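Data deposition worksheet. Section B asks for the primary sequence of the deposited chain exactly as it was used as input, without tags or linkers unless they were present during the calculation. Section C holds the resulting structure in token form. Section D is free text for depositor observations; keep each observation to a single sentence. Incomplete worksheets are returned to the depositor.
Section A, Depositor: J.P.
Section B:
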Amino acid sequence: MDVQRILREGFVSGLIGAAGVATWFLIVDTVAGRPLFTPAMLGDALFWGLRDPSQVSIAFPTVVGYTMVHVLAFVVVGLIAALLAYEVELFPATLFVVVVCFAIFEFGFYVIVATLARPLLGALAWWNVAIGNAIAAFGMGYYLWRMHPKLRAELKAHPLGEPMDQGVDEPV
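Section C:
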């Protein structure tokens, strides 16, 4: 196992995902006339237990603190994604498992957000979260796709991940 490669790719892909989500919410917040509202709200909720979005205070330490947690979480997700990309490159048949795990992860994320941040959901539209996650997933996935040319070649030859020439008889 190439641990240094996985760590490097995981760190970079995590930064890409975190930057994608942060940029998306900076745009959304700026268009709404309240730049940095989302990280301030989530930071206030995380650090101070805020439950009322009208009480959000956009403070630099809260925004920076939440951003650090956000980046750390994405780096962890990036490390897992890099490990999975490495494994799929070695064993293409595991692609299906990775896709299913990704779907479960996304669903679980929405359940956790709905459970823990229920009072804040009115200020944080679910579709904005979904778009932010899609941007992050696309950016991270594209980076990992570019870093694994062997995986690209294998999946191009066998899109379902399983080689056809492993003792399977052709139909007559």
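Section D:
The mean pLDDT is 86.
The two ends are 41 Å apart (CA to CA).
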